[in-house]
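We modelled each protein-ligand pair independently. The example shown here corresponds to the coenzyme A entry; the chain sequence is given first, followed by the ligand as SMILES.
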Amino acid sequence: MELKNYTEKAQSFFKMLPKDWQESIIPFWEELKASTQVYVLMENGALVAGGLLFSKCPPDMLYYEKEAKVWFKKGYFYLGFIYVDETKRNQNLGSLWLDKVKELYPNNGFWLSIEDEKLHKFYIRNQFEKIATVKNQDTLEESIYIFNP
Ligand SMILES: CC(C)(COP(=O)(O)OP(=O)(O)OC[C@H]1O[C@@H](n2cnc3c(N)ncnc32)[C@H](O)[C@@H]1OP(=O)(O)O)[C@@H](O)C(=O)NCCC(=O)NCCS
């Protein structure tokens, strides 16, 4: 399966996302697209997985902007909106997407944040480590994970 850069066709990736995720990216896309890339996995011509690589702080992470700047300066991408088609989950596609992105940028690190503890196992299995816990704008706890090149 091939990783494709879909930055120019971002809207077709956004269409596969849940409504609330769409609302937190589509209105900001014009402003973000110069510093953000979309990568997808295709299977028989259909989009099955994808995610975004940010090289600037996304709008939903502004409470973490100061710390984020340090990572961006070091060339780490922020990963967000990682999504696998519901009918295709638990078939390793999420891990494959991460592997392919790491392969494409062997000299860059990656960081991300999660609210759902269930995802801990997934990122640990994909060589990320938990480095911090922060409170987001809704004062909910979020965990920050990092992958070093
Ligand atoms: C999280 C996600 C990208 C994983 O992709 P995937 O292709 O199913 O993952 P893989 O097959 O590579 O790995 C499977 C592991 O992912 C985790 N996982 C899979 N589905 C999950 C779900 N619905 N919720 C939480 N974790 C899940 C589990 O740890 C699972 O391991 P296990 O089988 O030992 O329990 C996918 O489930 C998804 O799109 N979820 C909804 C969107 C989301 O939460 N994205 C992450 C944002 S940070």
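Residues 82-84, 89-95, 112, 114, 118-119, 121-122 surround coenzyme A (CB under 6 Å).
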